[in-house]
Amino acid sequence: MSPFGSKKNRSLSVRVSTFDSELEFKLEPRASGQDLFDLVCRTIGLRESWYFGLQYVDTRSNVSWLKMDKRVRDQRVELHANNNVYVFSFYAKFFPENVSEELIQEITQHLFFLQVKQSILSMDIYCRPEASVLLASYAVHVQYGPYDYESYKDGMLAGGELLPKGVTDQYQMTPEMWEVRIKTWYMDHEPMTRDEVELEYLKIAQDLDMYGVNYFPITNKNKTKLWLGVTAVGLNIYDERDKLTPKTTFQWNEIRHVSFDDKKFTIRLVDAKVSNFIFYSQDLHINKMILDLCKGNHDLYMRRRKPDTMEIQQMKAQAKEEKQRRQIERKKFMREKKLREKAEHERYELEKSLEHLQNEMRIASDALRRSEETKELYFEKSRVNEEQMQLTECKANHFKTEMDRLRERQMKIEREKHDLEKKIRDADFYVHQLTVENDKREAETEKLRKELICAKMAEREATARLLNFLNSGRKSSTDSLLTASSVSHAANTASSMAAISTPSLTTSSSTNDMETAGGAELTTTHSSHYLAQGDNSSGISDDFEPKEFILTDNEMEQITNEMERNHLEYLRKSKKQVQNQLQTLRSEIAPHKIEENQSNLDILSEAQIKAGENKYSTLKKLKSGSTKARVAFFEEL
């Protein structure tokens, strides 16, 4: 009876989460962990199942791996509180030594790609900033395909989670600045399929120091706190403050047996002359996980060094055939694409030529239309010019008549001016005569005034004499009468002189009035002359589908070999170029670094770069010593 039969009242509800999907199953209560794991692998089409496992959180809140030989319900899996569902996560439990040589299926590469990318973004795997940008460009390539300048839009990458938070916090750079640098790498990638890009991503990621390492806190006999790193090639020992550079290492081919007793973990080495390698963990649960990972990694390590089984050989052959088929299809597609692009280019050139000819025809038609319009315009202008000439002749005749009239008027004005000047001269002469006469009369008046004064004095004298005479006894009456008549004669003479001076003043005023009237007449005459000239000036006018190819087996093999050679040559040349570009990017973003935001791993990584060390050179140096010396070094830490 199948363990996946359905009895609804007894079945187990199971939910399995992968990095890109969620699966739900119904299991019988007696179903084992292996039954569930096989069901998941069949569902997603995975055959390289030995790298993966089902992870869960137990009732004590510890992270554990599902045991394949036990029933699911017997492994203390914590049920979901709402609907009593067993929840598992499908993760890679073991990692290959070399992804390009060991990973066979595309689904396997894809699952590793998703898990490693998530580990880098969550900072479970430390990645340098410049390497993070490079890996982000490959992740973008996986998501959007090869770079296409027509479909790419600025800001398309700024909103996604492409870089670890520790990298973005470490530099004072905006998302747009990071996008520019990711885009630069993205544009440089050659066109590749999704599985090829994911493989390139993993080949770069496997060189990271923390890739494929499971860390566990341990102590040695001196109670020194250390980290134990379980990897695909062996066990590494790290300082408590440094997870990047191991202090010492032991490969799986040096280890014979692994066991634990409570918190004490004992590793028996192949060299019988070397004492056991002993360390202590915090609790029993950690020892169980360490033992499980050690056994699995040791088995895979030894398996890689043996001839492939029939199953793996079959998988590799199928994968190779599939890869060759895809390469041939891709080659065919590229040839068809080139032909299509050539045809599109030719069509574009023909359309461009047609458009050019149409433009020339349109220009010629416009020129002809403009010529006709110009001809009509010239005819119209000729007619207008004739009318203008006639009008001009009429105006010229009118102007001639007007000029004659103005000339006659000017002559009349000249005559009037001459007459006026004569009158002015006569008036001046008359005024002069009047002035002379006035001067004479003023002299006579002065003379009469003096005579009047003399008369008054004579009168006073006569009065005085009269008084004397009266006082003396009244002289003769005849003398007094003579005196009175002389006084009366003097008074009459003064009155007549005053009457003569007044008409002279009146005459002078009349002369001035005549001068003013003459000036007004002159002004009026000249103003009329200017107005006539203005009328003369105002009258002047002014003139204006691909073919299908069938390839033989030999051609297919040649195409495959050529593509492999080209790819290897590209990798060989691009590796050094990538290192140079990483160094350039590191120099570009260095000025934006915020030193206070650097983590301990950042500082350790910079020291590693300055020392010229990397993951492989460090392990090579550590393996150079004897096993006994490394065990002694560990015990003395």
UniProtKB/TrEMBL annotation:
Subcellular location: Cell junction, Adherens junction; Cell membrane; Cell projection, Rhabdomere; Cytoplasm, Cytoskeleton
GO MF assignments: actin binding
Pfam families reported for this sequence: ERM_C, ERM_helical, FERM_C, FERM_M, FERM_N
Highest taxon, organism lineage: Eukaryota
SMART domains from the UniProt entry: B41, FERM_C
Membrane-topology annotation of the record: Peripheral membrane protein
Coiled-coil intervals: 312-451
Protein name: Moesin/ezrin/radixin homolog 2
Organism per entry: Drosophila kikkawai (Fruit fly)
Lineage: Eukaryota, Metazoa, Ecdysozoa, Arthropoda, Hexapoda
